[in-house]
């Protein structure tokens, strides 16, 4: 429906008490180190809510809400700000999935901003001359991994479909942030250090992210005038600057001829052409939908596997009264349901334009009941478990079949933001450039990294006797695990959430939903709870706090765990019964997140 247009107006300092104004970092005398803005993981109030991993991005989103913008406007503004402060996770060179609840219509719709493969890419693109898959790191740090960026068109589509601002207005806060800079924290420095070797392979990445040839210091101010200029170009000329204009030409040249530094080892050239950019679309897609405990849970449909896998697992879990079980029993059942859903994800989910995904059957109650019969309440099944047969004919537990493949590798990065406004519009938006640092290749003088999203394809079939739904193909969108999720109660928004983390996104969202909806945990506490991620593998990833608390009892039931430092970095917003909004983010993971509301404490 048509939306009103409104200018973004100036705000008084009192509106966003507790948030550091843009440019405040630059005011430190004598170039002295300054502390980064405070990260507040939980906020309650009215007028709208924003939760991201970064305080500057949360502030920018709140400014838009306080000035009269809606949830779509604020989500785009905050996402653009994350392109400044979280450049290793998101930005103009990436893509993502946008799930939106429209308060006026009561509908939930989605935008598919997933990157696409070049038309020149075939099924053997990631195979070497010997016919074997390329080493993963070689494929990642290359032009070959770069898909057509979807983020700018996602922003424009969101504003056109749901918003009230122009793209120029929505980009204003992020442009100022890029010009004036943000304070480097431990997380940004650590992520830069993790990518230092890769960045030094490219002259443009070294120049931007290693100023003066060194890692940025904690407490210093990081400015990105090149990105500010890119945002100004998009504001002036629209997203056509990327898809049919000068910026697109620069992206293609960078992918085809990566700016390798003097003396650095060569990298593989990309296949991206200007015609790929010109053909790109960010389509509206029907969301996935399942009913769970009387609630409506909406997610992202293929090519994301997030909505289908979370939805199938919830359907499997619904047959068990989790609220009546002890905590370890709940976790055991959650891990088993996750493994079953991942088996089916790996076997059946891919780009629906290239693969017949049996989505309705994967999300059917009857299929879930057949799958649930494999869950032994006392003992973990040997992993990997076989995929089911979603053929519409269900009965007693079927005979075991061959296990599916592992689904390929996905990077641990990405970022997620959640926004709600005072009218009840809600945006759950997960955006990414894939790996932390993407391809490692910065577009010269443009201030952003190119994605390595095409390494989300399965490089080669794991079982030549079965169809592989996620092989590369011309124009195809690689399978994703991004799972932006909105939950309605009686047609009204109850909560929304999402997370980064590659394939662990699905389990992070699922575990948080189980904690909140079945166990009654406060949303902020559910986000902070220790996590484990079972993705149909012999071992489940688990954080130290999880194994400390539950490892012995779960191991006795047959579970096996592999230690990882952290899983996910979720954000969420909940509509409380008294009319207030709760914004929630991480307390510790990825340096902690930032939650805010327009009017704190108001009720």
TrEMBL record:
Q: What is its EC number?
A: 2.3.2.2, 3.4.19.13
Matching Gene3D superfamilies, A to Z? 1.10.246.130, 3.60.20.40
Q: How is it modified after translation?
A: Cleaved by autocatalysis into a large and a small subunit.
**PROSITE patterns (UniProt xref):** TAT
Protein name per Swiss-Prot or TrEMBL:
Glutathione hydrolase proenzyme
What species does this protein belong to?
A: Geodermatophilus poikilotrophus
Cite the record's note on assembly.
This enzyme consists of two polypeptide chains, which are synthesized in precursor form from a single polypeptide.
Protein keywords: Acyltransferase, Glutathione biosynthesis, Hydrolase, Signal, Transferase, Zymogen
């Amino acid at each position: 429906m048509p939306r009103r247009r409104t200018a973004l107006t100036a705000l008084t300092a009192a509106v966003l008490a507790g948030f550091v104004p843009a440019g405040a970092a630059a005011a430190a005398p004598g170039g002295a180190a300054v502390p980064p803005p405070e990260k507040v993981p939980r906020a309650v109030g009215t007028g709208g809510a924003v939760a991201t991993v970064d305080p500057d991005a949360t502030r920018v989103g709140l400014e838009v809400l306080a000035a009269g913008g809606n949830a779509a406007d604020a989500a785009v503004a905050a996402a653009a700000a994350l392109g400044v402060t979280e450049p290793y996770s998101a930005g103009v060179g990436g893509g993502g999935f946008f799930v939106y609840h429209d308060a006026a219509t009561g509908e939930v719709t989605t935008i598919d901003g997933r990157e696409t493969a070049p038309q020149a890419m075939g099924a053997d693109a990631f195979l070497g001359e010997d016919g074997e898959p390329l080493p993963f790191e070689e494929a990642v740090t290359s032009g070959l991994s770069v898909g057509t960026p979807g983020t700018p068109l996602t922003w424009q589509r969101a504003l056109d479909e749901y918003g009230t601002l122009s793209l120029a207005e929505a980009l204003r806060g992020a442009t100022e942030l890029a010009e004036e800079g943000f304070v480097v924290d431990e997380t940004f420095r650590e992520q830069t250090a993790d990518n230092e070797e890769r960045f030094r392979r490219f002259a443009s990445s070294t120049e931007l992210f290693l100023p003066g040839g060194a890692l940025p210091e904690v407490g210093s101010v990081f400015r990105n005038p090149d990105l500010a200029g890119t945002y100004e170009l998009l504001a002036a000329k629209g997203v056509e600057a990327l898809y049919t204009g000068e910026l697109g030409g620069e992206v293609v040249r960078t992918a085809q001829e990566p700016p390798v530094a003097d003396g650095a080892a060569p990298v593989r050239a990309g296949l991206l052409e200007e015609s790929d950019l010109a053909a790109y679309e960010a389509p509206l897609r029907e969301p996935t939908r399942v009913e769970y405990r009387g609630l409506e849970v909406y997610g992202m449909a293929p090519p994301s596997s997030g909505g289908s896998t979370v939805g199938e697992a919830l359907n499997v879990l619904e047959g068990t009264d989790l609220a009546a079980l002890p905590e370890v029993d709940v976790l055991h059942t959650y891990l088993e349901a996750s493994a079953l859903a991942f088996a089916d994800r790996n076997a059946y989910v891919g780009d629906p334009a290239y693969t017949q995904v049996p989505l309705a059957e994967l999300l059917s109650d009857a299929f879930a009941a057949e799958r649930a019969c494999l869950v032994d309440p006392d003992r973990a099944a040997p992993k990997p478990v076989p995929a089911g047969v979603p053929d519409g004919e269900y009965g007693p537990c079927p005979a075991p079949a061959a296990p599916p493949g592992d689904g390929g590798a996905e990077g641990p990065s990405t970022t997620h933001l959640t926004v709600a406004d005072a009218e009840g519009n809600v945006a759950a938006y997960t955006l990414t450039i894939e790996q932390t640092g993407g391809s490692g290749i910065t577009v010269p003088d443009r201030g952003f990294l190119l994605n390595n999203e095409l390494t989300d394809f399965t490089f080669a079939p794991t079982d030549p006797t079965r169809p592989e739904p996620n092989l590369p193909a011309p124009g195809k969108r690689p399978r994703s695990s991004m799972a932006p999720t909105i939950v309605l109660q009686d047609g009204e928004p109850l909560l929304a959430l999402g997370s980064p983390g590659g394939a662990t996104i699905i389990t992070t969202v699922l575990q948080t939903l189980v904690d909140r909806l079945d166990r009654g945990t406060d949303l902020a506490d559910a986000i902070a709870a220790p996590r484990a991620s079972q993705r149909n593998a012999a071992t489940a990833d688990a954080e130290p706090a999880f194994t400390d608390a539950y490892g012995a009892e779960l191991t006795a039931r047959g579970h096996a765990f592999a230690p990882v430092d952290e899983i996910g970095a979720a954000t969420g917003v909940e509509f409380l019964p008294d009319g207030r909004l709760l914004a929630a983010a991480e307390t510790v993971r990825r340096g902690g997140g930032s939650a805010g509301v327009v009017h704190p404490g108001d009720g």
